[in-house]
Amino acid sequence: MRHALSFLLTMFANYLFADTTSVSLKISSPCPIIQNLPDTIYTCNPTVQLNPTLTSSGGVITVDTTWTPSIGLSNPNTINPIVTVGTSAQVYKLTIQALSTTNLVINGDFSSGNTGFTSNYSVGQGGAFGPLSSEGQYVIINNAAAAHNLFASFGDHTTGTGQMMVVNGASVPNINVWCQNINIQPNTWYDFSAWVATPYPNNPAILQFSVNGSLLGQPFNAPNSLGNWSPFQVSWFSGNSTIATICITNQNTALDGNDFALDDIQFREICFVSDSIYIVPGSVNAFFSSPDTICVDKSITFTSAYNDPSSSYYWSFGDGFSSSNYSTQHSYVTPGLYTITHVLYNSPTCKDTFQKQIFVREPYEFYKSAIICKGSSVILGNQTITDSGRYMYTFQTSGACDSTVHLEVAVAETPHVNFTFTSVLNMPVKFTNHSTNATSFLWNFGDSATSTEVHPTHQYKRSGNFKVCLTGWSAEGCKQVVCKTVSVEVIIAIDVPTAFSPNADGVNDVLFVRGGGIERICFRIYNRWGQQIFETNNLSEGWDGTYKGTPVDIETVAFVLQATFIDGNTITKQGNITLIR
């Protein structure tokens, strides 16, 4: 948490920046001691993790952590940042701002009831709405709803079940709600804080905090949400004072609402401590590469990435063995996870350390099963398996563990696939599926068209011999393919008779469009005046020689025919038709 006193750190920057020993600025409260922060780090790594710790015999609460300068730091406001090492040496200073664990306020959490403080408000005497029926009263209680029957139900900030001060605000400003005299040290920084909640939604309280008659910070608006504890916090410098008279007043004078609750009032001493570290970049890298996993008793070679005769090398393999060679071999006799540490010394002022974990394991055993189709095979290592049974193979891996696979194989029957077909001039070919032991199918009709139906039909666009293939799959995934040649005859033709006799003698009574390989038509007939008397898009629908149910007189009529064939070609014809009765 960034504390409100962070601006004070700059007051001591010039005094502390060049110092690399732990320095504290305090009066009487025990400040923490910064430990595990060396004066100087010589590093060959691009980054350095700083891990200082804090200790204190008297106990403190750290409220602000600042590293300066912030350049190159992952986070200048955490105690353990990562430093990105630059090309030149750099001093970093850590400054800790802390609070004493001793709260100088007596009964600040009201656990001792109505003691330790003074108030110009009176203790609630009760009434129609409960103990706080009148303005300018307070009670020490563990539930706000028990103080006034219009108040929200909530507990104290400390535990939710303890005591707190619940107040019905007065209509007169500047009346002390809570005051306490505290013995203090002169010329000392203190931290004052309190928690405030609102029990009634109308006109939340406006509180003012003061020490020795001087206001602390800005007026504090109590939260609008009911039962939501919000903090007020500010710092104060004692100067020559030896007593701090702390008071809380309510500046809201509204009669409706203006109610609030107080808890955890605290007044703590502040201190500062700082320490510095000098980071000097180096020029070596103790990196090495190795497998992540090896097998028991397998020898592995570890080689430093930095090869310099003037450098010193150290290896620790995590199992009690070590080496001082640039390149060394090692094997492990017990499975487990080991940390390998490589330390590289380039000069008395520079060393680099690199660590990596390696997992040492025993050989693996795998148990698998497989279903193969009759006549097919499965490969296991150097074995080609075609029959049912149990098989085993050991895979040898260089530098790691061998793995043994146990495979149980079952052979599934392939389906029997067969089909027949019926091909009629200009008609779709009908296919009949006679397959057995097959659950799914794929037809390839030889003209780029396909189907997954069991018994499909297919219209070809042209005459010819087509290779039709049917693939069938069993439930186990086995398949068989059967192909046959299908001869298809498609004759592209269309015409209209030049005469017909709709005289109900049963011969040539209806005029039809005739032809083959036709996909769609538009056929229209017009009388001598150009009036359309018939239209159809259906080859099976003909003209019976009537118009609106009335026979047409003997005459010659005109027709217009537009047709599209199954091969995609189109044609337009027109001519005359003689109607004979």
Between the first and last Cα atoms, what is the distance in angstroms?
Answer: 109 Å
Oligomeric state of this protein: single chain
Large-scale geometry:
flat
Q: Which bin fits the share of residues in helices?
A: under 10%
The class by helix and strand makeup works out as mainly beta
What is the average per-residue confidence, as pLDDT, rounded to a whole number? 87
List the helices and strands and how they pair.
Blueprint lengths: L12 H4 L6 E3 L7 E3 L4 E4 L3 E3 L3 E3 L4 E9 L13 E3 L5 E11 L21 E2 L13 E5 L22 E5 L7 E8 L5 E9 L8 E6 L2 E8 L8 E8 L5 E8 L8 E23 L11 E3 L4 E4 L8 E5 L5 E2 L3 E4 L5 E12 L2 E12 L2 E10 L4 E3 L2 E3 L3 E7 L7 E10 L6 E4 L6 E5 L6 E5 L5 E2 L5 E2 L5 E10 L5 E10 L4 E3 L3 E2 L13 E3 L1 E9 L5 E5 L9 E2 L2 E2 L4 E10 L4 E10 L2
Parallel strand pairs: 3-18, 9-10, 19-25, 26-30, 39-46
Antiparallel strand pairs: 1-18, 2-5, 4-7, 6-8, 8-18, 10-11, 11-18, 12-17, 13-16, 13-18, 14-15, 14-17, 20-23, 21-22, 21-24, 24-25, 27-28, 29-30, 31-32, 32-35, 33-34, 33-36, 36-37, 38-40, 41-42, 41-45, 43-44, 45-46
